[in-house]
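Our working data are protein records whose layout never changes between entries. The record below serves as our worked example for the rest of this section:
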Amino acid sequence: MEKEFQDKMRTTLLEIKEQVLRNLISENEDFKAAVEDLGVKDLADIASNDIDVRTLEALSSQETLRLNKVESALIRLENGKYGVCARCTKKIAKDRLEAIPYAVLCIECKSDSEKRKN
């Protein structure tokens, strides 16, 4: 893989990482506020806040997973394994990497994986 493309993807991954970290910080502040609001006595408010807390927990979990994927992609960039399918070891298409910079499977293996899930 060309150095220019690797540099471009490194920059993209670092930008995604920064955005995810911002999201997690923001969600954490929202989460704290939602938990503090649970002191409200109105049952409707408590139920509403409980839903908000669960929603924030789910979002935070998704963002944490995304952050882990980005970190793994950055490590693969450093050790020369970025852009290589983890299943078949073929090169992952540049178009796929540009769309999903932290992709670990080529489109064929990802498609096969999705079919097996269903």
The radius of gyration is 19 Å. The chain is about 75% helix and 0% strand.
